[in-house]
Amino acid sequence: MRIGILALQGDVSEHFEMTKKAVKNLKIDAEVVKVKTKEEVESCDGLIIPGGESTVIGKLMEKTSIKETILKKKIPVMGTCAGMILLAKETDYPQPLLGIIDMKVKRNAFGRQRESFEEKIKILGKEITGVFIRAPIVLEVGPDVEVLSKLDDKIIAVKQGKNLALAFHPELVDTSIHEYFIKNLIK
Ligand SMILES: NC(=O)CC[C@H](N)C(=O)O
Asked: Is 2 annotated as a binding residue?
């Protein structure tokens, strides 16, 4: 198995390290690679899109034809923060999107005072620390989308088919979400 970390912009190294730890914990034979061309993306069985600036990453994904490759090859994708935004069908700002999760996302959704914060959240039967950095929230989901976590009444984690989107940054906390993605969504 080969797991790619999309290395166009954002917190690539944090995901790279956490994914390698997750692979070690799971005791599976998998290679973790940073990818930035469509050929490299095409060679992966699963892809992680990091946090960063979703407009920048989105434009580069179009320019490099990585977007086209993901859509054509239906590679399972996990996106955190900016990565979540890129998985959405719609945002409150016009920008390139993958549109592979049927949801509408609002960028920078936590007002100024709480632009960045940490809070305990419940997801996949566990409690973990959610690190929110100018995080988005999900405003609406379609019927095929499973809501995995909420903060108060705000949706912060969803899954549709083999794609997983998180408003926070598990790559800064522990391996649990990465392990879930590898074990359950990448075949
Ligand atoms: N930490 C992040 O990834 C922030 C996301 C950023 N606010 C965006 O809209 O792209």
From this structure: no
